[in-house]
Design brief:
- The chain has a single domain (about 5-80), classed as ACP-like (Non-ribosomal Peptide Synthetase Peptidyl Carrier Protein, Chain A), CATH 1.10.1200.
- The chain is built from five helices and no strands.
- It has helices at about 5-15, 35-50, 55-60, 65-75, 75-80.
- The radius of gyration is 11 Å and the shape is globular.
Amino acid sequence: MSAESVVAEAVGQLLDLEPDDLTTSTRLGEAEGWDSVNQMRLLVHLERELGTALDYDRFMQAETLGDLASVVAAVARDVVA
């Protein structure tokens, strides 16, 4: 499973959105239900699912789903490849 798929599934699950409607260019701030609480929920969810810590600063600076996928891919190549 690709990093993009992992992130889309997690965002879709947490925000009750269809993962197929999310693309790498989806702006997180424009996703229905996206706020700082859900941002932290997503961070914890991904770290638990992947079994590794993500780069907090890069995660918090991510503006698109693709940005988040890059953060995931950088630390979890073996998990999502």
